[in-house]
Structures are given as C-alpha cells and as structure tokens.
Design a protein that fits this description.
The protein is built from 16 helices and ten strands. By secondary structure, the protein is of the alpha/beta class. It is globular.
Length: 348
C-alpha cells in the first residue's frame, strides 16, 4: 500500500487537503490532484483509506473515477493538513462542527485557506457552515474561509466535464486565491462576497429538489415540476434576502443554477429520494438502500426552523417538513398547496 504522505510528482503546485471522502470530497480531491497539487484525502475509517490506496479509487462512493498519481488517502487529519495551502471541508453538515474542532487542534501556521464544500445548516443552532468554522477555528484562521456553490455533480467534476462554480468569501484575497486554485481542468470558478447567498442557495435547493422529486415520482407532470422550481426559487430568495443575501446571487450559479440541476438531474440524490417518496416508499427504506447522505432531509428540518425564526413564509418548505416529519400524504400536500389563498405573483 502506498504511504499516505507520499509527495506529489515533480512540478507539484503545492499541497492541499480534502476532509471528507464521500462522493463530493473525492471528486474535488481528484480535480485538485489533476490540477497539479499534492492532494491528501482524509477519511475517518482506516479500512476505507486502505481500500482507496490499494485500489486507487473510492469504490464506495465514486467507483468509476480513478485517482491521479498525486492523490493519496489518509486517516490522519494531522498528516492530511500538514503544510496544506488549502483545506477543503467536504464533511456532511451534521458532522462538520466535531471535525473542525479536531482540525483546530492539529492545523498549524501560517493558516491555510479553507473552502466549505458542504451544504447544510445545523439543526439545533441554525448556524451555517461558515459560522461553524468561525466558531471553531483559531482566531487568525477565521478570515481565510470561503464557501463553494453552484451546479456541480460529483461524478461530472471527477470526469473533468465542464463545470461552473462560485467561490464566496468576505476577503477579496481569499476568494481570488481559491478561485485560481480551482479554475482549470474542467472547472471555471467565479467569485462573490455574498457568503450568505451562496450558502443558503446551496442548502435550500436541496429541500426544493426533494419536492420536485416527489412530484416526478407521483406522476404530477412537467408543469408541476417547473412550478415547483420557480416557486421554490421565490422561497429561497425570500429567506436569503431577509438574512442579508444579494438578490442577484439567487439568480446565479449558487441559486438558480444549482436549483435547476438538483431538481432535474438524474445524479441528484435529493431528487432520487423525492421520487421514491412520491412512489410511496418510506424514508427509512430509501436512505438505507442509498447508503449515502441526502442533505435535503436534514436541510428540511433546519430550513423550516430558520423560516419560523425569521418569520418568513415558505409554503413548499413547510409542506416538505409535514411530509417528512409529520406523515402528510403526498396527495393531501398537493391539494393544500394548490388550494392556498390566491394572490399576486410579486407577493410571493
């Protein structure tokens, strides 16, 4: 088995770490290695690491994507981040805080850039992932955090297919540095200072994708899907702008772009969960069979609580919450949505 800390080949651009060896973390690690970086992919399980090192691919989550020579897996977070210029945080949102607490004990100076690649809000605290990193990282590291958004299926990124993303950071230096590191070999990265808009666009579209999938699974038709996407974007925009997002962000890559892809693409896990729910399968059965995280399930709970806290009306989110957590039948949900009081479109 190759050593986890082996250096990259001659001409390496530097060292990066990706924390989280699910499909998205693996795809980003493959991309960065292809870009010429000595890339360390961290996973919790030593068994999983050994499998990836031996077979030179992640057979559990992305089996059709071979690893470049400069990509190495490790179960040691300390080894993964040692000397890294960039640390990509691709851990599921519900496990992010614990992972960043562990990271804070091993990361050194000078501080690396951090790129949040998870899309979620903590259920209890309602903290965004950017807020989680700000809470848990050492003070000097907190201003070097960026968030990633945009329409980007892991399998297509790993395959090098053309993909556009957006990097959000409060610091211009941070967002431009991360933009340069990501761009090339299939990815074109744009930048923005709207961290709130990029993060919320990525979170809330997962909830709408579940709804769109339910509509597809229940045979509600393409008119219904288009309506769900459009009204879903209205709900996303309403909450995000209340929390300080720029409206243009929600019509860009992190808003409309990610929403359309996730609501229509065959590779969308959230849409697949919705389709199965629309076919009257149980949520427990669906998630057990998938064996992967569908962030929209937890995102629905967080989004519903966040909307209540901010006193923002979000009928689709409320309906998805009732289906997932209250046992509301799909047909009753459709009747309730279609029977809501009539209003002007600009009134949301």
């Amino acid at each position: 088995m190759a050593a986890a800390g082996d250096a990259g080949g001659q001409g390496s651009k530097g060292r990066v770490a990706v924390l989280g060896a699910g499909s998205w973390g693996t795809a980003l690690a493959i991309h960065l290695a292809r870009r010429g970086y000595d890339t360390q992919l961290w996973a919790r399980s030593a068994e999983h690491v050994e499998q990836m090192q031996d077979q030179r691919r992640n057979t559990r989550y992305l089996p059709d994507a071979p690893f470049p020579a400069s990509l190495h897996a490790t179960a040691s977070m300390r080894d993964a981040v040692a000397g890294a210029e960039l640390v990509v945080c691709a851990i599921p949102s519900h496990a992010m805080r614990d992972a960043i607490r562990a990271l804070a004990t091993v990361v050194g100076d000078p501080p690396p850039y951090y790129l949040i690649a998870a899309k979620g809000i903590e259920v209890d605290s309602l903290a965004s992932m950017h807020e989680v990193l700000h809470d848990e990282l050492p003070p000097v590291h907190r201003e070097r955090v960026a968030a990633l958004g945009g329409p980007s299926f892991a399998a297509e990124v790993a395959a090098g297919l053309p993909t556009t993303v957006v990097v959000a950071a409060h610091s211009e230096d941070v967002r431009l540095a991360v933009q340069r590191m990501l761009s090339g070999d299939g990815i074109r990265a744009y930048v923005t200072d709207d961290v709130v808009g990029v993060e919320l666009g990525g979170v809330l579209k997962n909830v709408i994708a579940l709804a769109a999938g339910i509509g597809d699974g229940a045979g509600l038709g393409q008119n219904a899907r288009a309506g769900l996407i459009t009204r879903g974007l209205a709900e996303i925009s309403r909450l995000a702008t209340k929390l300080g997002a720029h409206p243009a962000t929600l019509s860009g890559l992190a808003g409309m772009g990610d929403l359309v892809l996730t609501c229509t693409g065959g590779l969308s896990r959230n849409r697949r969960v919705g389709i199965a729910l629309g076919q009257r399968r149980t949520l427990d059965e669906i998630l057990t069979e998938m064996g992967m995280v569908a962030e929209g399930v937890k995102n629905t709970l967080s989004a519903h609580r966040l909307a209540a806290r901010e006193q923002v009306e979000m009928p689709l989110v409320a309906t998805m919450h009732a289906i997932l957590y209250g046992g509301l039948a799909v047909r009753d949900a459709v009747d309730a949505l279609m029977g809501r009081a009539l209003r002007a479109e600009r009134e949301w």
